[in-house]
Design goal:
With 134 residues, the protein is of the alpha+beta class. It is built from three helices and five strands. Strands 1, 2, 3, 4 and 5 form a five-stranded antiparallel sheet that branches. It starts with a helix and ends with a helix. Mean pLDDT is 85; it is low at 100-104.
């Protein structure tokens, strides 16, 4: 007899029904990942049996790739059949490593570009007003 979604939810204990944020170090940078323990995406049975014989933990790089794809695979034991399972929960990285940050230091504008920008803004505004009036 295999465990059901409800069985695995019960095994979560105090995490059941929560959205928990974890801080992890990936590639030398600290990230935050939120794991949603309110629903299970899928369950996969492993070949590992016995409570003291879990499958190997995933390296942080592999975990990060899962989080980027929107899930977190967690090892969970099922006492009903004595096997370990990978239980997939939704996950979201709060501050990804590959997030692009743009900063503008200086904007240099010549008078001709300023006038052209102003004229373009007036033309766009006039066009919008004409469209609204029908």
């Amino acid at each position: 007899m295999s465990c059901t979604d409800a069985d695995f939810m019960d095994r979560l204990g105090s995490l059941k029904g929560t959205k928990t944020i974890y801080k992890r170090t990936v590639q030398g940078k600290e990230i935050e990942v939120m794991v949603d323990y309110t629903k299970i995406l899928r369950i996969e049975k492993t070949t590992y049996s016995g409570e003291s014989n879990p499958p190997p933990a995933l390296p942080i790089e592999q975990q990060y790739e899962q989080w980027r794809r929107g899930y977190s695979a967690n090892r969970m034991y099922c006492p009903k059949d004595g096997y370990w399972y990978w239980v997939y929960f939704p996950a979201k990285i709060m501050n990804p490593l590959d997030k692009v940050v743009l900063t503008i230091k200086n904007i240099i504008t010549t008078p001709i570009y300023a006038i052209a920008g102003l004229i373009l803004a007036v033309v766009i505004a006039a066009f919008i007003l004409m469209k609204r009036r029908g």
